[in-house]
Amino acid sequence: MGKNLVILGAGCAGTMVANKLRKRLHRDEWTITIIDKDDRHVYQPGLLFIPFGIYQPEEIVRSRSEFIARDIRFVIDEINHVDTEKQRVETMAGSYPYDQLIVATGVELAPGEIPGLMEGWQKVAFDFYTLPGAINLHKAMRTFKGGKLVLNIAEFPFKCPVAPLEFVYMADAYFTERGMRDAVEIHFVTPLPGAFTKPKASAFFSRLIADKDIKITASFDLAEVDCAGRKIISAGGKSMDFDLLVSIPPNVGARYLVRSNIAMDEIGYVKTNKHTLEAEHHQNMWVLGDATTLPTSKAGSVAHFSAEIMVENFMRVLHGEAVRPDFDGHSNCFIETGFGKAALIDFNYDYEPLPGKFPLPGLGPFSLLGESKANHWGKMMFKWVYWNKLVTGEELPLEAQMSLAGKIQD
C-alpha cells in the first residue's frame, strides 16, 4: 500500500519542497498532496516595489498550479485541524491521511494585536507585506502631499527583516525623484537598539540612514496606535506623530496550528530543530519557511537553503538512516538602497554579515555590505530565477551552507 506525504502551504517553501521530493520519491510508493486556501502564488519580494509603482500587481501574482508538478495532488481548501495522533489533516471538504507531514504555512499579519491600529488600517496606516496593503500604500504614496512618513516595526520576529529598511531607502529616492523630498520627513521607528540585529550590518545600514537624512528612533516598544490623532505610542509613554504610517504589525502563524496544538504557543510558530528541520515535539513532521522557530531571518533564502537540507534528511529517514544536523542558518538577501543601487548580506547562525565579495557562477561576484548597481540588478533578475528555477525545485548554483570564500574577517 502506498504512503502519503502531505504538505501544508503552497507558497515558496511548500511548492519548492514538493517539487524537489517529487523527483526523489517513487510515484508508485508515495502520493504527494499539497494544500492551500487559494490558487494565487504571490512573489513576495515584489511586494516592496508596488508602493513605488516599479511593479504592477499582475507582475507578481501567478497561479500556484503553474508551478506544482502534475503528479502532485494540489488541493484548494481551508484546513481546519491536524490530528497528529491519527496523522490526518482535516479540511472543510475532506480528510487527508499522512505518513509524513511538512508544515510550510508561512505567517500572516495581525494588526488587530495592536490596540487602535485597526481603526485606521488601510486608511491612514498601511502595510506592504500583503498585496492589498501594497496596492493601497501605492495610492497613499501617490497622493501624499508631504509631512511625516513613519515606518514602525511593532515587534520581532517578522517576515524579511530588511524590507523595512529597504522601504525607507526607496521612499527617500521616490520623493527625491518627485521633487518633494524636502517636504517629507522619513522616520524609521524600531524596537531594536539599532537599525538591524547584527552589529556590522546595523552600522552599515545606520550610515545609509544618516546619509539619506532619515531619522531613526530605536528601542521604541509599540503599545498602541491613535489613528484619529495620528500618533504611535510606546509602552513607556513616548509618542510620535505621523501623517502617513507604514506599519509592520505582529506576525503570527496559521491559527489551525494553534488549535491543533502543533504550534508551541498562541503566536503560532512550530518548534523546529534548527539544524535538521524536524518538528521537535511531533512525530513524522517537518517544518519549513516562515512557520519555523529558526533563529535566523524569515526569508525566502532561508526557505531555499533549509529545504535543501530537509530533503536530504527526509530521504535519510525513509532509508532508516540518522538525520544530519547540517543546516547552519544560512541566509542572504539583496537590500534595495534607492537610486538603482542595492547592498547584499550573507550570514548564518555563527557568522554575522561580513564585507567582501559574494561569488555567484555566471553572474557574480556581488559586493557584500556595500552599495552597487550590480546588486540592484541581481535583485531585479531574481524574479525570473524565482518563477523559473526556485519554486520549480531545480538546483541552483548556491551552496545551502554559508561559505567564507571572498569574505573579509577582522
In short:
Strand 13 (184-189), helix 4 and strand 14 form a beta-alpha-beta unit. The protein is globular, with a radius of gyration of 21 Å. The protein is built from seven helices and 24 strands.
Element layout with pairings:
Layout: E1 3-8, H1 12-24, E2 30-36, E3 40-42, E4 61-63, E5 73-76, E6 79-83, E7 88-91, E8 95-97, E9 100-103, E10 108-109, E11 125-126, H2 131-143, E12 147-153, H3 163-177, E13 184-189, H4 199-211, E14 215-217, E15 222-226, E16 231-234, E17 239-241, E18 244-248, E19 251-252, H5 255-259, E20 285-287, H6 300-318, E21 331-338, E22 341-347, E23 356-358, E24 366-368, H7 373-390
Parallel strand pairs: 1-2, 1-9, 2-5, 9-20, 11-18, 12-13, 12-18, 13-14
Antiparallel strand pairs: 3-4, 6-7, 7-8, 10-19, 15-16, 16-17, 21-22, 23-24
Helix pairs in contact: 1-6
CATH class membership of the largest domain: Alpha Beta
As laid out across the biggest beta sheet, the strand order is 5-2-1-9-20
Number of domains: 3
Class based on secondary structure composition and strand pairing: alpha/beta
Give the strand tally. Answer: 24
State the CATH architecture of the largest domain. Answer: 3-Layer(bba) Sandwich
Give the uncertain stretches in residue-range form. Answer: none
CATH topology of the largest domain: FAD/NAD(P)-binding domain
Strand content: 15-25%
